[in-house]
Amino acid sequence: VKYAVLSHRWLPDTEEVTKDDFDKIASGSDPTLKDRKRRGWEKLNMFCKEAIKRKLEFVWADTCCIDKSSSAELDESIRSMFRWYRNSALCIVLLAQTRGAQEARDATIPDEWFSRGWTLQELLAPRRVKFYGSNWNELTYKENDKEWFRETPPRLSFVMKATGISAEDLADFKPGPTSVDDRMCWAAKRLTTRGEDVAYSLMGIFDVSIPTAYGEGADRAFVRLVEAIMLARGDTSVLNW
């Protein structure tokens, strides 16, 4: 099955569309006028339009495709997220604070999308990525923006500048418990809403899996991540970081 995934900076909770909203519609409950005006609907609508334009019949967005009231489903989703993005036909990236390619190149402060924890794996995992500006304008003319990183010299330099990631890794990232120093540095300044997600969002990048346990705290979650990396590597060199 070919499908598109969305990578984006979440809106405030009152603006996003959730699985609960779709469940209400499926049960016959029409959204109120206030609900229909939420910006999340427009974002999903444009996401679907871009997927249809590329002849993709299925889409997946984290805001509305995960039942966050179910701890079991949330745990499975978090541990599967890298694979879902990896197996997508296209990852559509919305840079909601960026109007165009020139603005992206000239920005002294990168779009907020580059500062979030979960978007790191959403950039690295997919084999095909397409960047869009705030008005859903394509930032480049290529169908797959990862191709820019394979050119000599590599293009789309604003992505490399904002992330500190090499063109080689941006073009063809290989997950695993290797290059720990570099990969930890990529994530070091990124932010997550919940502290534990700093660790959980790195599972796919290091190709390890740990159970999620919200409430354990960021430090404990990170310790468990490091333990999993050490077990996968078969040594303790990760502690040098």
Write up this protein:
This is Heterokaryon incompatibility domain-containing protein. It comes from Coniophora puteana (strain RWD-64-598). Residues 3-101 form the Heterokaryon incompatibility domain. Pfam families: HET. By secondary structure, this protein is of the alpha/beta class. The chain folds into two domains: 3-173, no CATH class; 175-241, no CATH class. Helix content is 42%, strand content 7%. The protein has twelve helices and four strands. The chain has helices spanning 19-26, 33-36, 39-53, 71-86, 101-106, 118-124, 157-163, 167-171, 180-188, 197-200, 203-206, 218-233, and strands at 3-7, 58-60, 90-94, 129-132. The termini are far apart. The mean pLDDT is 94.
Estimate the global geometry from the Cα principal axes.
Answer: globular
What is the strand arrangement across the widest sheet? Answer: 2-1-3-4
Question: What is the ordering of alpha helices and beta strands?
Answer: EHHHEHEHHEHHHHHH
Count of runs of 4 or more consecutive helical residues: 12
Could you state the oligomeric state of the chains shown?
single chain
Report the sheet-strand fraction: 5-15%
Domain count, please report it: 2
What number is the mean pLDDT? 94
The gyration radius over C-alpha positions equals 18 Å
Q: Which segments are poorly predicted (pLDDT under 50) over 5 or more consecutive residues? A: none
Instruction: State the major sheet.
Output: 4 strands, parallel
Percent range of helical residues = 40-55%
Number of strands: 4
Distance from N terminus to C terminus (CA atoms, Å) equals 40 Å
SS-derived structural category:
alpha/beta
Protein name: Heterokaryon incompatibility domain-containing protein
